[in-house]
Amino acid sequence: MTRFFFRLDATDGRARTGAIDTPRGTIRTPAFMPVGTAATVKGMMPESVAETGADILLGNTYHLMLRPGAERIERLGGLHRFMNWDGPILTDSGGFQVMSLSDLRKLTEDGVTFKSHIDGSKHFLSPERSMEIQRQLGSDIVMAFDECPALPAPRERVAASMRMSMRWAARSREAFGDRPGHALFGIQQGGLEADLREESAAALKEIGFDGYAVGGLAVGEGQEAMFACLDHAPETLPREAPRYLMGVGKPDDIVGAVKRGIDMMDCVLPSRSGRTGQAWTRRGQVNLKNARHMDDPRPLDEACTCPCCRNYSRAYLHHVHRAGEMIAGMLLTWHNLHYYQELMSGLRAAIAGGRFAAFEAAFHAERAEGDIERL
Amino acid sequence: MTRFFFRLDATDGRARTGAIDTPRGTIRTPAFMPVGTAATVKGMMPESVAETGADILLGNTYHLMLRPGAERIERLGGLHRFMNWDGPILTDSGGFQVMSLSDLRKLTEDGVTFKSHIDGSKHFLSPERSMEIQRQLGSDIVMAFDECPALPAPRERVAASMRMSMRWAARSREAFGDRPGHALFGIQQGGLEADLREESAAALKEIGFDGYAVGGLAVGEGQEAMFACLDHAPETLPREAPRYLMGVGKPDDIVGAVKRGIDMMDCVLPSRSGRTGQAWTRRGQVNLKNARHMDDPRPLDEACTCPCCRNYSRAYLHHVHRAGEMIAGMLLTWHNLHYYQELMSGLRAAIAGGRFAAFEAAFHAERAEGDIERL
């Protein structure tokens, strides 16, 4: 069986490109992972997600444990088979979403007791239980169970939370055990405090993981603060392991994060935006709800090769969105995921070619032109 | 340019199989036409609709004239281009849906004035306006503008309505003019009254159409009454032209209609059912909402070759339907349309092979077995 293995092929400044080999396939990095919360990337057939160029999906432990249940998915042959996705899957630990979505949660050193936002049923998550659930799901990349405060937060709250997350990281490592072909990632915390990030990185390295996430960002601190943290945080993590920035982000967040040494990202944005009539393009965001598209025969982006841009006009996208038709979300999600993967592909090629700075400048210049002018 | 041409290849009893050649492709008959009401077959990419085996789609004049508007679709290059469907499209006349969906309608010999169910705006439909709209849409098969009462209805109401529809049919024919490669179908009315059906057929034949619909059925009369009417009505229409039964139906309605000499049908049922968790299979209807599917690893139908049955379990379909995920409607619609097209393919082969009776018996026997037993 192929082992989990990260290969760094090239660097350009702090930006890195390479690949993660897994038994289920290779993940080209920097990688963007579409989110398949409830065992589906909303509005997409999994074959179509693969067509956009995605090598790996993210699944949400919190949602799946509540519905349909991790034990059920295990009995049915695991998450890959359940949702018809043969490639690698990364699952989060459930910690973040318990804090943001569940009701009546109670947090102790042991773990978190909470009520389901779906049916009010009572559940418990801990490092040990999270490892068990992620094993039941059959996840290829398992995330350590952690906790983090929304930012801004008092330094003492951030420090105490980080230190508990580091104790949970050790318990996660212990509970994960040895599972060849599967990886366990630790999650750095420490908010925007550089010394806490260093303390967290040291604790994680001491435990030892297959990869390291920069956690606790994209929780309200803004891009400037996030980039300031990323100017420092990734470098505190091992160079020879993949670095994953959780829950990020907008295209310009992605470019800035890759510039700062990030290898993996995930975000609901491209799929969620697609369902609300928003498209992401090299010229920035386009709101298809806007009446200016009503008679526009042009595609969203004449340079884009996705099925949405090859076959449909802005007028059509406007119409089907207004009419509440499913195909509006299907086409715009496809376009957005395609655009995100094109961006990642461009970033990888630029880093490999030693021309990241030129790529970044062109990226911002193209966006500055704004959406294609009205006919 | 290919002319519109109907070729009858074989008959078996009153059942017929053949093909309609159009400039946009051949329609194998008996044909089932998926409904693309608002310029999309809900939940399906048009390539996927074609993959199910559909040769032709139906578009709704009433919906399209209100949103996005027929003039707009014409400016954008016609309905085919707008919705990315290269094959033939049949459009209804709008008459039926004005009567069933609009508000505050006023019916006169001239036509119907009504308010949009979408925004309350005022509109007018007449034979002339319906022909204009269907031309603007670029429809390949245009339906004459007609009107019909819900059944049961008093004979005098049915007769008066039918006679006005026949006057409207003559006006439709006149307004349609000569459009090579495009076809105009007349619509027989007369409710369940055999002599009125004959009177209507005579009027239509006198005017002369490229095809003939049996209209005014599937409006509440029940299958037995519908079949009793179909025992007689299709035979009153020209043998050398296609016969279209509008708005039908369930799989057993389809088999019974084909047996009685019908060549074309359309219905929202397979797509609408798919969005509400209902599947149609050779063993009858399956309700995926039912908790008995929650742990069932089997496909909907192990003999079905559609992507839904090849790749997903009943447990998955149950889960995504309960979770309100778009893929539930996408997969079940695909399955249902696939099943319907497989049924049509089976009917065509059976008629061609002179074994319609055996096919019909096997169809009913398979359904009588009921859905696959619980594990």
TrEMBL record, chains A, B:
KW Coiled coil (keyword) present: no
Active-site residues, as the UniProt record annotates them: 92, 266
Residue ranges constituting the tRNA-guanine(15) transglycosylase-like domain according to the UniProt record: 14-367
Stretch list, region RNA binding: 247-253
Signal sequence interval, chain numbering: none
Domain of life: Bacteria
Transcription keyword on record: no
Cofactor or coenzyme needed: Zn(2+)
UniProt-annotated binding residues for Zn(2+): 304, 306, 309, 335
Keywords: Glycosyltransferase, Metal-binding, Queuosine biosynthesis, Transferase, tRNA processing, Zinc
Pathway annotation: tRNA modification; tRNA-queuosine biosynthesis
Residues binding substrate: 92-96, 146, 189, 216
Gene3D superfamilies: Queuine tRNA-ribosyltransferase-like
EC number in record: 2.4.2.29
GO molecular function: metal ion binding; tRNA-guanosine(34) queuine transglycosylase activity
Cofactor binding remark: Binds 1 zinc ion per subunit.
Reactions it catalyzes: 7-aminomethyl-7-carbaguanine + guanosine(34) in tRNA = 7-aminomethyl-7-carbaguanosine(34) in tRNA + guanine
Name of a matching Pfam family: TGT
Subunit structure: Homodimer. Within each dimer, one monomer is responsible for RNA recognition and catalysis, while the other monomer binds to the replacement base PreQ1.
Cited NCBIfam families: Q_tRNA_tgt, tgt_general
Family: Belongs to the queuine tRNA-ribosyltransferase family.
Protein role: Catalyzes the base-exchange of a guanine (G) residue with the queuine precursor 7-aminomethyl-7-deazaguanine (PreQ1) at position 34 (anticodon wobble position) in tRNAs with GU(N) anticodons (tRNA-Asp, -Asn, -His and -Tyr). Catalysis occurs through a double-displacement mechanism. The nucleophile active site attacks the C1' of nucleotide 34 to detach the guanine base from the RNA, forming a covalent enzyme-RNA intermediate. The proton acceptor active site deprotonates the incoming PreQ1, allowing a nucleophilic attack on the C1' of the ribose to form the product.
Protein name, per record: Queuine tRNA-ribosyltransferase
Organism of origin: Roseivivax marinus
Lineage: Bacteria, Pseudomonadati, Pseudomonadota, Alphaproteobacteria, Rhodobacterales
